[in-house]
Amino acid sequence: MEGETPLLLACKFQDSTELVQMLLDCGADVNLGDNENHTPLHEACRNGRLSVAKILVAAGANVNEMNYNSCTPLHCAVSSTNATLVKYLISKGADVSIQDECGRTSLFLASELQRWNMIKHMETALCPVDTRSVDGATALMVAAQSGNLKVVEELLKRGANPDLAAHDFTMALHLAIHSGHLSVVKLLLKVTSRNAVLAHCTHPKAKTGRSLCCLAIDGEYLDVLKLLLSSDLGNYILHLPVHCDGSLLENKPHLGVLYSECSPVSFLLLTKLNDLKDDILIYLEVLLNHGFPVNVKDKQSLPPLVAVMLQPGCDHLISCCVDMLLAHGADIEYTTICKMVPDPLLAACISGNSSGVLQLLRVGSSGLPDDLLRYLITHGHLDSSPHMINMVRLLLELGVTEPALYSRLQQYFPEASSDIQIKATAAFLASLQVCSLQKLCRIAVRRLFGHLLIPAMEQLPVPHCLKNYLTYKTL
């Protein structure tokens, strides 16, 4: 850094009162800073050197001098761990209301850094407790995010308003939830107005903080999620969806529908299947037992069954999640994209989720192999990835009746390919050019009954082996 004086360097690197006093006695300018206007007092306070600071102040150092980013020596002292230094500067006239370029007062910074022993020296009459930073945050918000219950309690005692929100409509409650600070969340739930939560969460411009439950899920804080569900916020607030942005559906297959919102159940299944592993079943059970919906009312909402089917791999977990959703009444026949194929089955297909396709067909989904394969080809989802190759082989094994589909497949999987998997698929395709009469009969029966097949099989006196064949339990 350019422009450093001997006095500034002494305050920066030495804790020698004798050296500092000698330089002052020799005429060193106590308020001369470097090119960024860091003064000797800034440096002494940044390093928590009380004895040096006292000498500088006695020599006329300006306790409210601001450097290039509007930080005062008091800001620097708060960044240190010396509460006595903070108390001393305030006693010498340090202005606790001065904001740095980010809009942070000393109180704000102390709250952010969890310096409770410094906050108690700051009179809120001189520094309004709800002074906002440039992004609209307050000291209470950053304290809630940091998770220091003592600081949060002190700020509330001094009159901090928990109902305020930053410019992005995030409240202190949102930040505590997303950071997983259970005790702080518990306190804020008691003092925050439900009407304020509702207003900020449902504001048209509210994005990241729209759903409190999704914040707890995103942070993987099950205890916080359970606390929210046991609160008196009410189902309307608890069930609020989160907006689907690019990051939520990034690297997910495109279904031809622009989903604009994601319920807590769908958010859990879409984002946490790979992270939570088996624990996702615990989260899902908690949400379902609390009455979170498993179906959607409009096509802009991502259905939970579709969300879970967009996840390739984790076959066992996906199967368990599907079983839980179906047990709570999830609509396996929900259709908005392709009138011949329900959305969950279509999502499993284009994700290359072979086990998911088979599971949905076995429990009664009305889609047929021809329709699935035609959609894959027509909409450009077919590729040579292992997942998609397995999907094609499954559909062929289930029975494809249209000759034109075989011809289209040969273009994707030529016998002359040097890729071993593609070549094997081409050979498999060649062996299945004609669908067997047995499979043709199964397809005809499933086309006739559609989604009523499973109820019909339960009522009709059909041999068990035939029931298994018609429902794909045996291929």
Describe the structure.
- There is one protein chain.
- The longest helix is centred in the last third of the chain and has 13 residues, at 315-327.
- The protein has 30 helices and three strands.
- The protein has a three-stranded mixed β-sheet with strand order 1-2-3.
- The protein has a domain at 241-336.
- Helix 1 runs antiparallel to helix 2 (17-25), helix 3 (40-46) packs antiparallel against helix 4 (50-58) and helix 7 runs parallel beside helix 9 (139-146).
- Helix content is 53%, strand content 1%.
- It is mainly alpha-helical and 475 residues long.
- InterPro entries: Ankyrin_rpt, Ankyrin_rpt-contain_sf, SOCS_box, SOCS_box-like_dom_sf.
- This is SOCS box domain-containing protein.
- One of its GO terms (biological process) is intracellular signal transduction.
Strand order of the largest sheet: 1-2-3
Shape: elongated
Oligomer: single chain
Strand coverage percent? under 5%
Main sheet properties: 3 strands, mixed
Q: How many DSSP helices?
A: 30
ANK repeats: 2-35, 36-68, 69-101, 135-167
Protein name: SOCS box domain-containing protein
Keywords: ANK repeat, Repeat
InterPro entries: Ankyrin_rpt (IPR002110), Ankyrin_rpt-contain_sf (IPR036770), SOCS_box (IPR001496), SOCS_box-like_dom_sf (IPR036036)
